[in-house]
Amino acid sequence: MENKKELRNWLNDMNLNHPLVIAGPCSAETEEQVVKIAHQLKDTDATVLRAGIWKPRTRPGNFEGVGALGLKWLQRAREETGMMITTEVANPAHVDLAQKHDVDILWIGARTTVSPFIVQEIAEALRGTDKPVLIKNPVNPDLGLWLGAVERFHKSGIKNLGVIHRGFSTYEKTRYRNNPEWQIPIDLQNRFPDLPLILDPSHIAGNRDIIFDLCQTALDLNYDGLMIETHHDPENAWSDAAQQITPKTLDQITIDLRIRKEEGDAVEFRNRLSTLRTKIDVVDHKLLEILGKRMKISDEIGQLKKENNVAILQTKRWNEILGKMILEGEDQKLSEEFILRIFKAIHQESINHQKKVISS
Ligand code: PEP
Ligand code: MN
User: Fold this and answer.
1) Whether 158 and 126 share a structural domain
2) Is residue 26 in contact with ligand 1, taking CB distance under 6 Å?
3) Whose CA is nearest to atom 10 of ligand 1?
4) Ligand 1, pocket-test mutation among 136, 199, 204, 244, most atoms within 8 A of CB
5) What domain range includes position 71?
6) pTM exceeds 0.70
7) Considering 7, 113, 211, 264, which has the largest number of Cβ atoms within 10 A of its Cβ?
8) pLDDT tens series, the chain, 360 aa
9) Among 217, 209, 143, 199, which Cα is nearest to 175's?
10) CB-count exposure of residue 112 (10 Å: 0-12, 13-18, 19+)
11) Which atom in ligand 1 lies closest to the alpha carbon of residue 240?
């Protein structure tokens, strides 16, 4: 993509608050529900109302959305509150209907971004539109696939683009519904600093409790906006009940968030420093996670050694590990002295873990 600067213009032109706040239910359920939530959001920082009309569900048998009917409800909500409206489109027929109802912003779901064929079809259907299109990351942690979708829309003459970070699925259960893998949007942001980047904390979290922390991290990383699932009665929502928050909670979150405005040299310096520190925090968190995983494997080895009556310390194996790591460390520009120190510490912790297992 050349003219990257023009990518951000639509967001500036809309003259909305920073950050852009998109809020509304996971799914449009009834006309009353959509209109009620819109009225409750009207006086918050949210300027765009979201609601899924066509819901791509991973497993069949769940609520799959009310369909085109819901577009009328969104239009009514817009008329009554002045909010802009946005919904997910997943094929050219959806695009056609959304255009006919003059939906202000469209988004592409995570299960759509994974498929270049369908992305291409949607991009063709939208050719030349000036409506902003927000592209969610694919469900799998693949930056190329995400960028590929952005490029397909850009090549179809769609200039008003943005991306939504909604996390990545993992086979193993983690504390997140979808692992944030912050490094991926950070890499994307480094490559396209003018492509508006929006966080969807709801689908990352999978529960309401960590929405605030995710939003704060995103703002510290200079994200441009937030898309937060919001429902007047979250517990009884027809989809994603555990992760939705009330408009009142949303309001409190936006009040409590530290929002950075970039003005003046000193402020600019502090902002950049704080962004870099947040990036370090993200990596440190990953380091701890990986060390924890390594020790769990050590525990299993300890168990195996116990069952087979084998000694904990095996010098030959240890020297092999060290030799390999010193060589690999060189590629990462890490000194031999550092590698020795860090691996000795890891090895000692491993031995402590195994001792504990064997004596238990
Ligand atoms: C949604 O926004 O409700 C949704 C289905 O999101 P995703 O595509 O991120 O799963
Ligand atoms: Mn949802």
Assistant:
1) yes
2) yes
3) 110
4) 136
5) 4-259
6) yes
7) 113
8) 444 455 567 888 887 778 999 999 999 999 999 999 999 999 999 999 999 999 988 888 889 999 999 999 999 999 999 999 999 999 999 999 999 999 999 999 999 999 999 999 999 999 989 999 999 999 999 999 999 999 999 999 999 999 999 999 998 888 899 999 998 999 998 888 889 999 999 999 999 999 999 999 999 898 999 999 999 999 999 999 999 999 999 999 999 998 876 666 777 787 788 888 888 988 998 899 999 999 999 999 999 999 998 887 788 888 899 999 999 999 999 999 999 999 999 999 999 999 999 888
9) 209
10) buried
11) 3
